[in-house]
């Protein structure tokens, strides 16, 4: 009877332990997911450095801690490794550049590959239909085109 009780407790403990590990793994995978260009742009525009250096002191159980924040320390870290664009970003940039006329559906199909090849040929890149570092370096400029201001017409004299 005691052996069964101990066995059941051990099995329950193992199940709780494994459930906790699964949650940690999901959280880790979520943090490691690549960020889109829009998310990176939004992050860069929303993070503003502190106007001046601030020093805060707090006493916890008799221990004094000093925290200093300077503008240089508040800069966001650059992403590690090369950025891999999504299919939607590729299609959007190709459409803005005038090489893709189909619906932006997030799938790299024959029309998207043809548009990539045409873009690569027009920009002196290796026309392989794949968006690598060099192709994305040129194509990414078309992802968020700068809106053109309407031309001002001179006022008529009366």
Description:
- With 158 residues, the chain is mainly alpha-helical.
- It has a domain at 87-142: PGBD-like superfamily/PGBD (Muramoyl-pentapeptide Carboxypeptidase, domain 1), CATH 1.10.101.
- The protein is built from five helices and two strands; from the N terminus they run ααββααα.
- It has a two-stranded antiparallel ribbon with strand order 1-2.
- Strand 1 (54-60) and strand 2 form a beta hairpin.
- The radius of gyration is 27 Å and the shape is elongated.
- It starts with a helix and ends in a 19-residue tail after the last helix.
- The model has no long low-confidence stretch (mean pLDDT 76).
List descriptors:
single chain; 158 residues; mainly alpha; Muramoyl-pentapeptide Carboxypeptidase, domain 1; two-stranded antiparallel ribbon; 5 helices; 9% strand
Produce the secondary structure layout:
Blueprint: H1 2-32, H2 37-46, E1 54-60, E2 63-69, H3 87-97, H4 110-122, H5 133-139
Antiparallel strand pairs: 1-2
Return the CATH architecture of the domain at 87-142: Orthogonal Bundle
Mean pLDDT: 76
Structural class: mainly alpha
Q: Please work out how many helical segments DSSP would assign.
A: 5
Summarize the structure.
It contains five helices and two strands. With 158 residues, it is mainly alpha-helical.
